[in-house]
Design goal:
28% of the residues lie in helices and 23% in strands. With 372 residues, it is of the alpha/beta class. The strands form 3 sheets. Strands 4, 6, 7, 8, 9, 16 and 17 form a 7-stranded mixed sheet that branches. Strands 12-11-10-13-14-15 form a 6-stranded parallel sheet, with helices on both faces. Strand 16, helix 13 and strand 17 form a beta-alpha-beta unit. Helix 5 packs across helix 6. It is globular, with a radius of gyration of 21 Å.
Length: 372
């Protein structure tokens, strides 16, 4: 998610303690590091200061920490590059880990070994991060048990690697702001994003109809077909959203009571224009880097509501058990064939420069996933 929040939060010590830099850079004083007797070396994508990702991120050798009583040794399998990862490296995200930091907030790993006090996972299990800032772009790590959530190992690898951020955001936005019933409609922009693709599929599983706005592009028909195969009912361009003909869409479906905005600027204003009276627009990103503008008449005469959503805040407001319940709900949809991973391209960790560059290109049609 692209966001404008600049609030800095220190990453908890349990998330920073897993590796000891072996490249000569000193760890921050607040962190607690330890070296294993075997001196195991792992590779990780590290940044020591904020800036352009391809310029500040480096592939380094790090030393694995010893496994304590409440710790879990994890071999990372795959980890995606999300917009929030890019924002964090640039220094303009709502949560910034203490530097130097390992990149990546999402991914899936396999448990190698556990400490004597660990009861929730065992060797061979698959795990994903429970919180942001864990640093998943590395081959191995030692994490605290409470920083991890176990997931079924019989779901596709790409689904597991991309489970903890975008589908969670999509599900909560569909559930938490309007009491929608089967047959109701939802309108969203950035419909080709990871969240957008998850919204289409989860909405379809809930019996909801989606109107999906995308930017015009040379391969528009190909994109339209792909989104409709996911369950999208309508796919329209930003330009079509602004035309009088849009009213024809609502001859066959009800006006949406929920709009999901990841763009801002003119796009969000147009979403508001098509909301039903009393409806809600939820903003979870700002790709256009422009403010949301709502007319006075929309607020007064249509009683529209403007809300925001950030998954990290949702986690703070809910218990770890509630987040695990959300993850298992999504895994159930995956098992039923109702939720697939977004279009992905797997890239070996050593080719991270290309993956980072590609992830920042416009009209990206495939999420970059680093494989270890």
């Amino acid at each position: 998610m692209w966001v404008c929040a600049l609030r800095e939060a220190r990453t908890p010590a349990l998330l920073r303690r897993s590796l000891l830099p072996a490249s000569g850079c000193r760890p921050p004083a607040a962190a607690s590091y330890s070296a294993s007797a075997e001196g195991s070396r792992v590779r990780a994508l590290v940044y020591g200061h904020h800036g352009h990702p391809t310029k500040v991120v480096e592939l380094k050798n790090l030393e694995l920490a010893a496994v304590g009583g409440s710790d879990v040794h994890v071999k990372m399998l795959a980890a995606p590059i999300n917009p929030s990862d890019i924002n964090m490296i640039q220094g303009n995200y709502g949560l910034l880990p203490q530097l130097p930091a390992v990149g990546g907030n999402e991914g899936v790993g396999q448990v190698v070994a556990v400490g004597s006090n660990v009861t929730g996972v065992k060797p061979g299990d698959w795990v994903i991060p429970a919180t942001a800032g864990l640093g998943t772009w590395r081959t191995e790590a030692v994490f605290s048990e409470e920083a991890l959530i176990g997931v079924p190992s019989n779901i596709p690898l790409q689904s597991a690697a991309t489970l903890g951020v975008n589908p969670c955001t999509a599900y909560r936005m569909l559930k938490d702001f309007e009491q929608l019933q089967p047959g109701d409609s939802v309108i969203q922009n950035a419909s080709n994003s990871g969240v957008g693709q998850a919204v289409i599929q989860i909405a379809a599983a809930l019996g909801l109809r989606t109107i999906n706005v995308v930017r015009d592009r040379p391969d528009l028909q190909k994109l339209t077909d792909r989104l409709k195969n996911l369950g999208a009912e309508q796919v329209i361009t930003e330009e079509e959203l602004r035309t009088p003909e849009m009213k024809n869409v609502f001859k066959d479906m009800p006006q949406p009571r929920l709009a999901l905005n990841c763009v801002g600027g003119k796009s969000s204003t147009e979403l508001l224009r098509h909301l039903a009276p009393g409806g809600t627009m939820v903003t979870y990103g700002g790709m256009a880097k422009q403010p949301v503008i709502a007319s006075v008449s929309q607020l007064i005469f249509k009683d529209l509501k403007l809300r925001g959503f950030w998954l990290s805040q949702w986690k703070k407001d809910h218990s770890p058990d509630q987040f695990k319940e959300l993850i298992l709900t999504l895994c159930d949809l995956i098992h039923r064939g109702q939720l697939a991973a977004p279009a992905c391209s797997e890239v070996p960790l050593q080719d991270y420069q290309c993956a980072l560059e590609t992830s920042m290109q416009p009209f990206l049609s495939s999420k970059q996933i680093l494989t270890m």
